[in-house]
Design goal:
This is Glutamate--cysteine ligase. The protein is of the alpha+beta class. The protein is built from 17 helices and 15 strands.
Length: 506
């Protein structure tokens, strides 16, 4: 959805032509794969980080246009809501001290952006869902002033034909409706990209699916929405419901949601793109003049713009991506599982854990996806979102033929997955200092049973116990979160409660 689109209406002929172009693009992708036209292994990774804008009071600030004007950098872009920004980090080769390099780039960029935001009395927050958001904040009038967002909203609303229902039963229950997709803007995430060859794509994607639950368990950071304490990672149910084009009748028929974990392990990237065309009607039937099959016949590389645009309106937690760099096509796995924050080192620890783990699992002789039913991976994802670091997950027993057993996530991570992640980082050529530092943060979270979500919940309940009302407690928690985020120490070291100044403020 980073493509620039122009708002306008669509008629029946637009949709018919677009569907034809999608089929041409899919055929073109198949030809490129058959002709082995894709880039050689480069071990390239990329990172996108979505951000919130909040004022000194901890409340959201609807002013991303003003802030971006002051930042004046192509690295920073709008996101769906007017209180959102996104920063894109240039691709890096996995190896050496890459995570320390990324940390320094992020600190520099975010520090600059925060100073510019302060000029208009706002600040940057890295967090899965801003706790102080209210239902009144997430209305269509607060969509970013960009054509593609309004157009996407109009098309999803038209496809659904009625208000969106948000109904999440967690520690408390949230039940409300929305006339637009704007509640999706509450979900601020980290996207981790990994360029892979076609031959390795399926193994990497399957590995990423298998460990999505573990990523959430150790990295959860979104326990609140609209003043309610819900799941430890409330982004996935919110995202699914806020983009759901299906009324109740289509859900009852088993029609798939556009925000989707998937339903099976795969053997090629082509299968995922083909599923996208087979299962999901186009939302934005905008056709390019390119004729992809003619371009390929002439020896060129097609942009496949219709396929890329359609793919961007299907919200898989691990998304296949087709791209072109220096005139050469490539494939990427875009991991969209993690929430933003809490600090730069936490973001990079999550990244190191992910990249190491998928490398190791993708190269196992008996891959985990041959021993773990896909339904169990999907069930794990749901459990991790609900319970965070306290989740119990289904995982293949270590011994051959041992079946699947239920194990606490922290036990699984410490005893089995962290050693695998370390071996994977070694295989990438990551220096031992980077490997040990960032995986050590994951180890400490597990040892102390602390992540962003647990810290938010504990601090919020301390505020309630001190006599604050619900809204004041969420605002105080948000202010304290930002203070500690700016200090930059990993979340497992954060003290709960409030220091003297905040206590006096109560």
């Amino acid at each position: 959805m980073g493509e620039k689109v122009v708002a306008g209406g669509f008629d029946l002929s637009d949709r018919h032509r677009y569907r034809d172009k999608l089929q041409q693009c899919l055929e073109g992708l198949g030809k490129l794969l058959a002709q082995k036209r894709f880039d050689r292994p480069r071990n390239m990774m990329g990172l996108e980080l979505e951000l919130n804008l909040a004022g000194p009071d901890g409340m959201p600030r609807m002013m991303n246009g003003e802030v971006l004007e002051r930042i004046a950098s192509r690295d920073f872009q709008t996101e769906l809501g007017m209180f959102n920004l996104e920063v894109n980090i240039a691709p890096h080769r996995l190896g050496g001290r890459v995570f320390d390099q990324l940390a320094e780039e992020l600190r520099t960029g975010l520090g600059y952006a925060d100073r510019k935001a302060a000029e208009v009395d706002a600040g940057i927050l890295m967090i899965g869902i801003l706790p102080t958001l209210t239902q009144d904040d997430l209305v269509s009038g607060n969509l970013s002033d960009v054509d593609r967002y309004q157009l996407l909203n109009d098309q999803i609303v038209a496809a659904r034909g009625e208000d969106f229902t948000l109904d999440i039963q967690g520690v408390e229950r949230l039940s409300c409706t929305s006339a637009s997709i704007t509640p999706e803007a509450a979900c601020t995430s980290v996207q981790l990209h990994l360029q892979v060859t076609p031959a390795r794509f399926a193994a990497v994607w399957n590995a990423a699916q298998a460990v999505a639950a573990v990523q959430i368990a150790v990295g959860a950071n979104a326990p609140f929405l609209f003043g309610r304490e819900l799941w430890r990672e409330s982004r996935p149910p919110l995202f699914e419901q806020a983009t759901d084009t299906r009324p109740a009748e289509l859900r009852a028929q088993g029609v798939r949601p556009r925000t989707w974990f998937g339903e099976r392990w795969v053997s090629s990237a082509y299968e995922l793109f083909e599923e996208n065309l087979r299962f999901f009607p186009p939302l934005l039937p905008i056709c390019d003049e390119e004729e992809p099959l003619r371009v390929i016949a002439d020896g060129g590389v097609p942009s496949l713009k219709e396929l890329v645009l359609h793919n961007g309106t299907i919200y898989r937690w691990n998304r296949p991506v087709y791209g072109i760099a220096d005139g050469v096509p490539h494939l990427r796995v875009e991991n969209r599982v993690l929430p933003a924050g809490p600090t730069v080192v936490d973001v990079l620890a999550n990244a190191a854990f992910y990249y190491g783990l998928v490398r190791a699992l993708a190269e196992e002789q008996r891959p985990v996806w041959t021993r773990l039913p896909f339904e169990s991976a999907a069930s794990n994802f749901d459990a991790a979102c609900r319970y965070g670091i306290e989740a119990e997950l289904l995982w293949p027993a270590p011994r051959r033929g041992g079946g699947v057993s239920r194990v606490p996530a922290i036990k699984l991570v410490r005893e089995e997955l962290l050693p695998l992640a370390a071996a994977g980082l070694d295989a990438w050529g990551i220096e031992a200092a980077d490997r040990d530092h960032y995986l050590g943060i994951i180890e400490e979270r597990c040892r102390r049973r602390v992540n962003g979500a647990s810290w938010q919940v504990d601090t919020y309940h301390r505020a309630l116990a001190a006599g604050l009302g619900r809204e004041a407690a969420l605002a105080a928690t948000t202010r304290r979160y930002r203070e500690l985020m700016l200090e930059g120490e990993p979340v497992h070291t954060w003290p709960t409660g409030f220091p003297g100044p905040e206590a006096r403020r109560r």
